[in-house]
Fold these 4 entries.
Entry 1:
Amino acid sequence: MEAIPFTPDMTVHPEVLPFFDAATNTISYIVRDPGSTACAVVDSVMDMDYAAGRITYESADAIIATIRERGWSLEWLIETHVHADHLSAAPYIQERLGGKLGIGEYITVVQQTFGKVFNEGTEFQRDGSQFDRLFKDGDSYTIGTMTAHVLHTPGHTPACTTHVIGDTAFVGDTLFMPDAGSARADFPGGDARTLYHSMRRILELPEETRLFMCHDYGPNGRNIQWETTVGAERTHNVHVRDGIGEDEFVQMREARDATLGMPRLIIPSLQVNMRGGHLPPKDEDGKVFLKVPVNGL
């Protein structure tokens, strides 16, 4: 297991405001520096009525309104990975509040993979240039007086990252709540064995570290939850708690993934999110279209 390339400062306790999107079971976050007005937004959501092909921004507007009402300053928009189940609203928020857009450096692998799937032309840049910062493992950045650290945690996708800010970590789709286990690993570029090592790496953080999920589906009818701790995951996670070995996990994860259907919004989500949240370019008539690759996923 690769060592954590930094020592978390557990004396820093960011303020975290969750925003739950019931349509996609996504939790977006505002993370504020308690020592200033600086904040970041993690994994924002752009609303889409897929059947109607209609884009709206109610979820993003709620985040924007909160930041404005509290007089905060947006410094970063963070994508933990290229989401396959919801569309990012990062450019919409950035246009209104500023801030830099960041994602893991292996976005380029995702762009290469899905650029082919969606038969994108040469005008589609596959170098991550749609983003302001491509994070490497061990990189850091600041939100006001806080230092945020980046862990490369692939397995769900090649570009997955975990962002550790003081006593808090945003894990994207790598880990779920203890009773929900782990993310799927069967998308192109995913790998169950890699995912196991990424999860165990996260679980090497201090036990009191607060972990914030990107998704929750309320298994067995419980209320939606999004916050747990490293200690709770190590003790209770149904897929990767202490004592569950790599081979056991891989066998379970691959068997489980074989039964899962594709997310409802995977086709529009990938096309938009690999562009940093931007829609595909307009055609000569000023219209925007999304492609459906037949038998391509």
Entry 2:
Amino acid sequence: MTRDEEARAILAGNDRGGYTVPTDGLYPYQWNWDSVFAALGFAEHDMGRAWDEIDTLFSGQWDNGMVPHILFHKVDPSYFPGPDIWRGVGPIPSSGISQPPIAGTFVRWLLELDESFAARAEALVPRLIAWHRWFMEWRSEGGAIVVTHPWETGRDNCPDWDGPFAAIEPVGIESYRRRDTTHVVEEERPLQAQYDRFLYLVKLGAESGWDEAYLREANPFRVADPTMTFTLLRSTRDLRVLAERFGGDLAEIDGWIAAMEAGAERLWNAEAETYDCYDERADKHTGVVSNASFLSWYAGVGDDRMLPQLERVCGLETYFIPSTDPAHPAYEPKRYWRGPVWAMMNLLIAKGLAEQGHGDWASKITENTRAMIAENGFAEYFDPRDGAPAGGRNFTWTAAVWLAWASPTAGRNAWAA
């Protein structure tokens, strides 16, 4: 079986009828940005199924516009914390937080691949606008987009959260049993102290009924994040193109873009010479160069300030881009977001570099990722030292980005060119 065939088989195996799970066992539900990446993978061979994935995700949108990070379509006791812990208030049992809003960009990409699905794109535009409006109303601090839980960024245990977490005492957490370490070895997963704080923040949100006005004041964790800021800014630029075609308040969208362009500058850490997180409660930068720092080009704020960091970080290990700078004292090459390489982040970074005139770097990242997956398969993430697979196996978004981008045959569509 070729890698292309294997990738299609993984998407089919993780398909639950209208949505995919990231991988069987470890993640048995629909995750927000995982699902959007899956759609791009399905588009390689089944465009209708790609649109189904996006539509199913937005079927869980809350009345306030928020699109949750997990939709619990079917209860599965193998996962913790489940819907009884989250107590989401949407039309489908869900978590109470969101995830990186890449959907606007991917809807535009899907439409560019096949114009015959224009009606489905048009139907999504009001939903996308409502989601982006929720971010701008509740998560904007001077245009930088904040998160109220690390899981919202997708970068669950990255070193950026070490400082904010040190200020949190996770009181009132009931005894619980993690399920993730029954699927993946402990040294590749977050530490128990981090998990206690994850659950404390879930408890705080659930007990408030996910009242954003209350949480804006009461939540001790409020951190402006490059992942959220850069993906929302990029997605809003693409949403503007869709709204210009299908209808929408362009002045409102232009205002969001201008605000986030200013917010991106708030994330520039002049001392560390990088984009990084900003802890709003402590009023300081976190000082970590992460793979999220390199999403600046994807967001269209890609001046050349990050090029020296890119060259330095990519020169430190065999495979890149590591999720945490290998020179950082908290770097752990096999522990989730504290070091490993994530193929789907590489796709976004490479795409941004290519668009901003850095095709040489885009090609280097593409070729490096291609070699890593070709040699080591479709793992959730990879050890940057030798490419060893880590985390879950038969992973949806790794298979999807292979088909859409990293595979030697991916150039057959205009998007990957």
Entry 3:
Amino acid sequence: MEIDVRAGLDRLAARLGGEGARVLEAQRLSGGASMETWAFAIEGENGREALILRRRTVAFDPENARAVPLSTEAALIRAAGASGALVPPVAHVCDEADGLGEAYVMGAVQGETLGRKVVSDPRFDAVRGRLARQCGEVLARIHATPVPGLGLRVADAGDELDRYEQLYRDSGAKRPVLELAFQHLRKRMPEPVEPVLLHGDFRNGNIMFDPQKGVAAVLDWELAHVGDPAEDLGWICVNSWRFGRPDRPVGGFGDYADLLAGYEAAGGRPVALERVRYWQALGSLKWGVMCLLMYLSWASGAEPSVERPMIGRRVSETEADLVVLLEQGL
């Protein structure tokens, strides 16, 4: 059944803004195969409030999804915020009365999420040198968050290698660099550590940055799970998230030393750079498999979207990254 989002927002106005509250404006910001985001404002008893609606457009399938339900996502954001992490305030988790399906509402946070602008726009020149340390600090607070009883999946390096190698084998593709990376990373898996709450997609592009303050909020928690803290630390260092600045390994704006110093200063347990770079390489391998599968879904005719082959061609970028990392002795 198709949902009238605008009508649902009108119903939300009274619940969030009191009797007589009204929606001033509503704009769909983005949308994909299963998720969409709306920006809207409510004028009510307490004045004007800018809000964001995040809603799922298809039914959640717990058997085939790595993403968490949106109610879980909202609960995790609240829990991380209580631990001191910079997150958007969750205002409301939608229920049946709202008529919006699976969704939640959060306060709008001002800033920039476009990675290329963060690494190159002169507006960020003054703060860019502090961003890597701030990212380490916010990750330490996320990782210190007590894991709520929400049924989060648990995964270590072996689990991730198993999953992505199976996806790769099932695709029927033959990519020598990916083959070598799977073998190499299996031989060098780090010893397990005490697992923590992970954001799961912590990278430049999923973080809101303010030109004066730096990190403003961590967004997009749908891949949150429990695992090795170095997974989050390594993912933001994957070259694909540096947006043309390979010389700055942390998000295209900073260095490993600043990331790890910020992490320890905020209470995170010391993590060896070697472990971070292992997860960085595993991150490049995972993204390479994802890119490959996107291309194949287009080539087979299953996904006609032009976005799929555009992302799919980036598999060669991840292969180049892996060659460099392997040559460096990982």
Entry 4:
Amino acid sequence: MSHPQGTPGTARTPDGRELFYQRLPGPEGTPTVVFESGLAASRSFWGLVQPAVSGFATSVAYDRSGLGRSPASPGPRDLDTLAADLNALLDHLGAGPFVLVGHSWGGPVIRLATAARPDRIAGVVLVDATDELCGPLFTEQVRKLERPAQRMTVLLARLRLLGLAYRRATAVLPPESRADIRREGFTVAVTKVRAAELAAVPSGLNSLRDNPPDLTGIPVTTISGALSSPGMPRGTRAAVTESHRRRALVTEGGRHVLAPRSGHLVPLTDAELIAEEVQRILTSRQGPRRTR
């Protein structure tokens, strides 16, 4: 197969939009692992993880509306809409079972999608996910830091320099995925999608806090980056990791794992670890809560 993330396809949402995805087949009859990317990130961020799971499962990575090769949508970017789009993709892919893997803001998306249709979900892996159990996320200080960061992102995109900021991080991707992300992932149009998704974060967090998705009976693994990184200094890193630990503790069959080589971009630095945790869920759906 020429592309390490598999063959292309499109899934249609109930309102007529198309979501682009790539499907990498695994052994016949195995569950399908579906990857949900973080804030304004495309399917290409999973370019190392998909091949790592192909030995034991089929995998699908897709682009939300306006990202990668999915056409833009004038509609909202709130969590409910993103989760509904993910469930539309799952409807297209078949009956399941599915393991959902979400990075960063993709974590809340897969939790909501799972709660809506738990019957077809075999497990959930939250990769350095945004979590409402992290108190600092609700502070005005965080909002104030996000605004100049977004303005800088837009400026760099207009100057065609945004890709340079991520060149070192994305250099580890397979050449095909790296070319895709550098061509599709750092445009001015993408920064507009990022702004819309970012604007929906406060209301999304409040909604999660007021009405936590019910994942009873679903195995959940939370993965935390072990290192501080740009945008996530030591104090923030500690608070985020603690929220992941608490998520595992309050979840039936929860498990918390540290990614030793990673800051926030775990799919680019600890791909094999993510694959191992997916495989663990598939081979042992339930187990005692553990931390490593």
